[in-house]
Amino acid sequence: MSTPYDIPEVLDRREGPYGEVVLRRHGSLLQIIANGCFLMDTSDGRSERRLVDAALAALDAADTHAGHGPRQDPHVLIGGLGVGFSLAHAAAAPRWGRITVVEREPAVIDWHRAGPLAELSERALADPRAKIVEADLVTYVHETSDTFDALCLDIDNGPDWTVTEGNGGLYSPTGLRDCARVLTPGGVLAVWSAQPSTDFEGTLRNAGFQQVRTEEIPVARGVPDVVHLGVRPG
């Protein structure tokens, strides 16, 4: 027998600058859909939290490798607000100094500030360290004069599976040079992916990143999620 939860309930549907974005409820879960492609939901958050933790651990390791202690109050950029897991996890960690979130979809920002996703991010958004910037991440890292100790990027399903065609530039040699430009010496680039990309590891090395590695995140079934990591030389 079917139940009311068999069909997701659409809570909001908007035409954004990059196409249609939808927020829907499926049982107890909230889901974000972009141009018909499932992006994420509120079922777990393990991968998003691991993205932030892996970046901080790699940053501390790079500082130790360089011969000095962990830096104080590092500034992290989170690329993609999503359902808010990465932001909430970063705000729960006292080590981070400033937390900048870059999100290009006004609807997603609205859902967090005054919508159903506020329950996940309300406390983090009230944190004085946190700031949301409405911008396309590819453009932002190319143009900003700000600098960061870590970039935690989760705007696609991975370097080989982008949500929109323009995002591919972020993982190109030019995009990675922009990432390196906004990183402080010894800063860390962390990129979430739904599957490993050996080609991307090579691209990171060719772009000048050091200590390149891929950390797996076990999932219930199928290929594990991963975080690709690289360090800007000091």
From TrEMBL:
Family matches, as SUPFAM superfamilies: S-adenosyl-L-methionine-dependent methyltransferases
Protein name, entry field: Spermidine synthase
Any one Pfam family match given in the protein's UniProt record, by short name: Spermine_synth
CDD domains: AdoMet_MTases (cd02440)
Keyword Cell division: no
Coiled-coil region list: none
UniProt keyword terms in alphabetical order: Polyamine biosynthesis
